[in-house]
Design goal:
By secondary structure, the protein is mainly beta. It is built from five helices and 29 strands.
Amino acid sequence: DPNWGYPKHRDTRSRDYTIRDNYIGNIPGTVFHIRATSGATLTESRIAGIGQLFREETPNPNLVFKNNFLSTNDPALKDRWVASNQVDVSPQYVSLPSTMKPSGLLEAAPVDAREYAQRFDVTWNPFPSGDARRKEVESLAPLPLKGGKDPFLTADRVRGRRYILVDEWGPYDFRRPILRPVNPTQVAPGGTQRFEILGPRGSWKLVRSTGAVLSAKEGAVPGSVDVTIPAGQTASLDLVLEYRGGETVDYRGITTPRGQPMRFGFEKFMAPIDWDVRFFRWAISEDPADPHASPKDIGQVFQTTPILEKKLDRLDLAGSSLLPGLPADHYAIQASGTFTVPAGEYELDVTTDDGARVSVDGREVIGDAWHYQGPTSYSAVLHLDGSQHRVTVQHFQIDGYAVLKVELKPRK
């Protein structure tokens, strides 16, 4: 803000940046987003497979874009930039489908494994042999540590952000086979989900499939398989596969020699609940002087007209705004649904940010979560008799990040 004291006495303008010697490729959106910046120079880079080259929200005086090699399918870019850059136009220079959303979550439709691997086959070198700068860089490179490990992945390993994985045992090291859903939050009755089979190179075959149908009974590792879960019923998904191939080391450090079978799989209990979810605006707090106080009379809030109504097959929401159309702060949620599961003892898990309270068949089972907080987990033990039950969840969001996740599972 130019009215603040600091920028009145100091130069805080955005200016004189240089971006050079880069490979920039496979960007479906905008490559350079530049705002209120003077004297920016973008030079000597290779740019290929892009959507939009520039987005300038405000004038950027003395912007320089020169000596770049640009591969594009947009003839207009050649008309504008060929005088100061090398521009090659061809229909083949299009960006590949995105594999991840800006949030870091995987896209719903994963790309082919072979096509994905080709993304990392980047042969362009900013300092090719004979370039004087290459010798300078090599002269500054430190000597390898004696007995040190090479931090770079070998050519046969999967790579990229989507394969930085953490499971219940910690960071996954690809030394054991695993079966994992591409989008864990989408695994539910009534659809087909893509599962990846990761681990040392080898093969797999199906041993047991309970609660779902697989698109194949055998295949290669790494690979994938489609899993179809019938709709409208409680499902205990239990998938067991057998791996044969290279040596494996499990999460306990136990080694299975090369060629010996090793079983692995995936299991999940799913109790479908058809949620009726209503969102409300609120502004009254217990203490108006405290912006982080909880709503004063949530009953009154839920008597107002909803700002949004949704039917959801799962209550698993997170983000700065839980759904499109919601404000970023000061709203409340009331969700209710019915479910039927076999008689037994169950655990109801709720993760909330900010406050939440839960009732089952009119009896409050989680009531100590009604306050301002970061993402926090709560649970309640339920003794269910096999009949139909109704669950009601109330939630309020004050500001910042928001979470509301409800999961029912058998108690172990």
